[in-house]
Amino acid sequence: MTRPTHASRGSVLRPALAGFVALSLLAGAACRAPRPESVPFWDERDDANPERIDHGRWQAILDAYVSPDETGVNLFDYATLQANAADRERLNGYLDDLQAIDPRGFAAAEQMAYWINLYNALTVNVVLGDYPVDSIREIHEGVIPLVGPWGDVRASVAGQPLTLDDIEHRILRPIWQDARIHYAVNCAAYGCPHLLARAFTRDNLEELLEQGAHDFVNHPRGIEVLDEAFAVASSIYAPDWYREDFGETDADVIAHFLQYAEPELAEQLRGFDGIMEFEYDWSLNAPPAAETTNEP
């Protein structure tokens, strides 16, 4: 995480240096995760509506370009998709059609799947627009460095301009209040819960939310207990990120882990009474360039 820098007490900064420090302070502030904020416009639903939204084109993209690395983390082959004009058109058409839908007339589960898929497909498209990049944090429209694209308007639904932050923090989190959302939306970083290889639908929603939680908790980038006195967890569980969605204390986070931990990890967690630190790998969730294939 980028930390804000502060001038020493009594020091006088030259204008250029003062400007740099101001940008650093803003960048540090931008790293603090947004709080969930309810927007009443999106609260409507019709649970009696049986209609389904077609996510077949997104599934075809996932089938062609998502594959696990040697540790089981799903990587996305942006380079090959960028070179495939037909599949780029397929992705753009899918995004256009999603944005032409007003999801408020659908059942709640249908809406949740819609927003998760829209978020993930938009994120892939954002990376493609600037690829090659080493990290999604390099992509942004403003002057503050390394803040990423989450605050930039990337879509329009029901006449409302939307950022990725809007979808996650003003729609998904406040409406559903489900911590497993953090295992469903993917921010194109290696440290993020991985992009699942299946599109979300009303019918598989619960299964995939549980799968995402299980996969991440049981991978070292989710939680790694090094000994009884020290553990390293993902920054998504940190107080300045999304701790409030998982509980108030480290003990609450451990209780969350225990819901999904496999036996060996569960045994380590039950005996843990030490310090938990947090880290996050912002490198792009892409295969090494040398391993990128010419065909999907």
Could you provide a short overview of the structure?
The protein is α+β, with helices and mostly antiparallel strands and 296 residues long. It has 3 domains: 1-32; 40-207 and 284-291, no CATH class; 223-279, no CATH class.
| Sheet with the most strands, sense and barrel status | 3 strands, mixed
Distance between the amino and carboxyl termini: 34 Å
Quaternary state of this entry equals: single chain
Radius of gyration: 20 Å
Strand segment tally: 7
How many DSSP helices? 10
With strands numbered from the N-terminus, the spatial order across the biggest sheet is 5-6-7
Q: Low-confidence segments, ≥5 residues, pLDDT <50? A: 1-30, 290-296
Beta percentage is 5-15%
Give the count of structural domains: 3
Question: In sequence order, what are the helices and strands, one letter per element?
Answer: HHEEHHHEEHHEEHHHE
Mean pLDDT: 89
Backbone structural class: alpha+beta
Shape: globular
- Relative helix content: 25-40%
